[in-house]
Amino acid sequence: MSAHFEGSYLGDASRLPEDAVLECKICWYQYHPEKGDDVWQIPPGTPFAALPEHWRCPNCDGDREQFMVVDD
């Protein structure tokens, strides 16, 4: 079974590998788990699936469901 899938994760974080990079489809901000998120004080190493429910795009305030999986 492939760890990659097209488009949005559709709110199903269980489909995401821990190292998945996701991109906001509104402003193109990319969340990289190895970097975390300074704006929301998310420590490096936090997978997208482990982000708090209230987390939003630190660049445009878009909802987490607006993020799409980046296919390397």
From TrEMBL:
SUPFAM superfamilies assigned to the protein according to its UniProt record, in alphabetical order:
Rubredoxin-like
Keyword Transport annotated: yes
Instruction: Please name one Pfam family that this protein belongs to.
Output: Rubredoxin
The record's listing under PROSITE patterns reads: RUBREDOXIN (PS00202), RUBREDOXIN_LIKE (PS50903)
The protein's required cofactor(s) are namely: Fe(3+)
UniProt KW keywords: Electron transport, Iron, Metal-binding, Transport
CDD domains in the record, alphabetically?
rubredoxin
- The Rubredoxin-like domain covers 19-70
- PANTHER family, from UniProt? RUBREDOXIN (PTHR47627), RUBREDOXIN-1-RELATED (PTHR47627:SF1)
Write out the similarity annotation: Belongs to the rubredoxin family.
Protein's recorded name = Rubredoxin
Taxonomy of the source species: Bacteria, Pseudomonadati, Pseudomonadota, Gammaproteobacteria, Pseudomonadales
